[in-house]
Amino acid sequence: MERNRDGYTSPLSTRYASPEMQYLFSENHKFRTWRRLWIALAKAERQLGLNITQEQIDQLEAHAEDVNYDVAEAREKQVRHDVMSHVYAYGQQCPAAEGIIHLGATSCYVGDNTDILILRDAMNLTLRKCAQVLRNLSAFADQYKGLPCLAYTHLQPAQLTTVGKRAALWMNELKMDMENLEFQLSVLRLRGAKGTTGTQASFMELFEGDEEKVKRLEALVAEQMGFARCVAVSGQTYSRKTDAYVLGALSGVAQSACKFATDLRLLQSFEEMEEPFEKSQIGSSAMPYKRNPMRSERICALARFVIQDGVNPAMTAATQWFERTLDDSANKRLAVSEAFLAVDAILELYINITAGLVVYERVVRRRVMEKLPFMATENVMMEAVKRGGSRQELHEALREHSHAAARRVKLEGGQNDLIDRIVSDPLFPLTREEIEAQMDPEQYVGRAPGQVTEFLAQEIAPLLARYPDEGMRAELKV
What we know:
By secondary structure, this protein is mainly alpha-helical. It is built from 20 helices and four strands. It has helices at about 10-15, 20-25, 25-45, 55-60, 70-80, 80-95, 105-145, 165-185, 200-205, 210-225, 240-270, 295-310, 310-320, 330-355, 360-375, 375-385, 390-410, 420-425, 430-435, 450-465; strands at about 150-155, 155-160, 275, 360. The strands form two sheets. The protein has a two-stranded antiparallel sheet with strand order 1-2. It has a two-stranded antiparallel sheet with strand order 3-4.
């Protein structure tokens, strides 16, 4: 199909989101789901004794997929109502069933139930992609669990950690997001067949006041749509707090991905790590040497969009009037769909990056060794105390030597000569060899390697066991 270059086209469609996520929010999926819901309602009503024939059901099923958009769109221009336009169009294809389509239902029967079904499927797809990110990072964390690197507080070198342990921190936050999404899925309920204001009055009329049949009707519809239960109570719509909760969980995914991408951008600036950079990729139009972290930057950009969009359904939920008002509709069409599409784009990038992370181990070690003499001073002091030194005198001497060595590095551009200064100080009864023996980085990473091993086995493996390995790959779209 030729691309329309005269109108606005969302970059979520052309540059960012995957085809599978886009399909969930497509017209075809939406209106085919409407028809599935009408079929489910008709089947349940027939099973419970209403005058609906198998011929009518068969006709509805025969045209469940081939939506006659031209008829629906022409009708909507006349009546200004999307649901009734599609009822009319479906009836034109199914003349025998025309009179029983949408029987007893209100617009939200198809609209809201479809939205719930899309939420379910979109959350499941999001979880599968999160799982792939964790698989990629699991292999990375295990590979580098013992490689010492600088750890930071306030973006200042603090002590040491390992490259794999830092990856475990990224994983832990995404794991929390997955657990949140899983919870939202576990409490998600179909709206069901509730009628105009949620009282099921129209269905009570259809079934002549038989409450058990009305309850059974809803159970049958839910079962056909893959749900064990419907919401217990509703107005005309399901509670818009559902959207707020789900987008809150999506915001969490965006936050975690942005944290990862920001860390990687900093590490790439330090030349310790790098996102994938393709053979013919251009980093800058002006500076040929540049290797910009554009994938990570894109994650951060999209994450900001998702995080602020997460406020949208909360405002909608707060301003619903009584049993429903329509000012949620236009907003909801944008807020929910675009949050999922943007998170999908983020996860595509996250999968792509974590499948090809590069670690420059020599740079990592060099940067560690530049700072390690400062970090090792406590061990040096303890060893000197064991040999009879005064802890307070040694501490003051190390403070002076450390500041002098730092001045040499920062003001004179020289090398860190802290070891030379300690060796020359008679307060420290240690040889150069004994002091340098304290400069093994692996002595300063604590339990980091063991923590990674335990975390992968005890926290990540059970989570990933719920998601079959699909071998997902993601290509960068420009």
